[in-house]
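Bug report

Summary: structure tokens for Phosphoglucomutase differ between web form and batch submission.
Environment: batch mode, default settings.
Steps: 1) Submit the sequence below via batch. 2) Compare with the web form result.

Sequence submitted:
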Amino acid sequence: MSTIELLAAEWLRLDQNPDTRAEIEELVREKNTKELERRLRTRIEFGTAGLRGRMAAGWACMNGLEYLFHLCLAKFDWVIDIIVIQASQGLCEYVRATIDQAPTRGIVIGHDHRHNSERWAKLTASVFINSGFKVYLHRGLVHTPLVPFSVQALNASCGVMITASHNPKDDNGYKVYWENAVQIIGPHDKGISAAIAVNLVPKTWLNDQLDSSSLCVDCTEDMKNQYFTNLFTLNLTKTLNQASKLKFVNTSLHGVSDAFVSRAFEIFGFHPYAPVHEQQRPDPDFPSVTFPNPEEKGALDLAIKTADTQQANYVLSQDPDSDRFCAAERRNGDWIIFTGDQLGTLFAAQALDRYKAENKPLSKLAMVASTVSSKMLEKMAQIEGFKFVECLTGFKFIGNTALNLVDQGYEVPMGYEEAIGFMFGSRIRDKDGVAATMAFAELAVLLESQGKTVSSYLQELYQTYGYFQTSNSYFVCRNPTIIDKIFKRLRNFETDTGRSYPPTIAGLKVTSVVDLTTGYDSTNPPSYEPSLPLSSGHMVQFRASANDTKIVLTIRTSGTEPKIKYYLEATGQETDTVHAVLKQVVNELASGWMEADKNQLGRP
């Protein structure tokens, strides 16, 4: 018997779900070795704070390995119960061995509206209860921020949220929070993976008596109430909110956020917003959008159409699990959709103004952003005198960086990443789309009282701190070998015998290179070691300049998608020059550095 046949036999021995068993059995009958290899050869591994991928039978599906989950044939009604059980068993045993009093402190579990989310939440709860853990199982649909909030409020040992965030409808995921209520980082990810590897045989399946178990605790409504009580501490302008004539349209993109945002609008004193009715209720098939991500082109079309009909001033949007936020403003008959970096800058200025108004020392104020985010916050910190810290991409790093700063005596009221994720206050060290929605709405109302708009205020910030413009996108590549070849060429651009990065791009001289894969920082002799930790994937950042124009270009692989992402920002005195440089850099990046045509790279 071949090794792939042995892997198939092992799957069939363990799997009790008839749908996924039938799928593997059919592939075995057809002798479809290629598809069996894709599904079964690679073991599950924790990636970005857990697992995320397409729903299909096989060890390689619904996991955090780069690119592999895109190789699985997706069909949303197939349930990969065994993957969830094995992940839960490994997590359970690792938490028990690592955290004091873990079983009595318990685990928080929540789920969104995607296909299989509720079932997987209950499967996870069943595993932990079978192992003697207290389980705080949230009943009904919750938004992702409620899970880390509950972990912190209940002093739980860990948390799990079943969601695929803004991924397409055929995906789902398993997001893990540690006892500090932040998404897991190393060494816990590797520790959990190792624990999964020695706990593969399912000890339990779905417990039909789950709700009646003394270990299964329902504190959902209490946690929601506490969440909104905490959210209200961010309220700044309730009197203005009640009097404002601004009109808002909100879309949840078929996700879970409408109930949470509408309640937040009420307690903040706003008049009700106009919902996008076609997208207001949770729908796991996301019928009106291809990608339920507010960043994607066309995702806000229905919301803008509704806003035109309603003569609204602003469009507000959360992604399906309500941890991300996006906004748009009507200006002179057109619509301006704010980028994540622009929103991050606005929220930073808002936090800074509040801090100043409370007469707190700026030397104790700190803010955090990912290294691929705009450098405008860095410039703001230099001018204003507060501390700015950048970290690797992802809120598992942003949240932990914030906690480290708090331990050093700083207050960290805000942090963000350019992928429209924003963190507020001290109770949730993770992105929160509801909190971001309220922060933006209050900013808009305050500016209205001053005769301004959000976009006009952004221009004022540019005048104060300099003009910064981003151009972020990606190349699609499903072949890891080609991706490795592209990055190898970048590291040996002029020679095959040693380190040699590109010296110029679009007429700008490269002034520094930070390679967080190989551990090289050209600005830090003699060790040349970077200050940031190494990245698990490819990640290289270039800075270049010519005259008064400067750029920062970061190129990295995605941990959850088959993409080479790039984050490009230019700053300068003349907006026309900045726009022209951005266009030229993107063109040379594609044709010269990535060799997009030769490598058959896809473009959005």
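Above is the batch result. After comparison, the two runs are identical; trailing whitespace caused the diff. Residues 340-465 form a domain with the Alpha-D-Glucose-1,6-Bisphosphate; Chain A, domain 3 fold (CATH 3.40.120.10). The CA atoms of residues 413 and 489 lie 41 Å apart.
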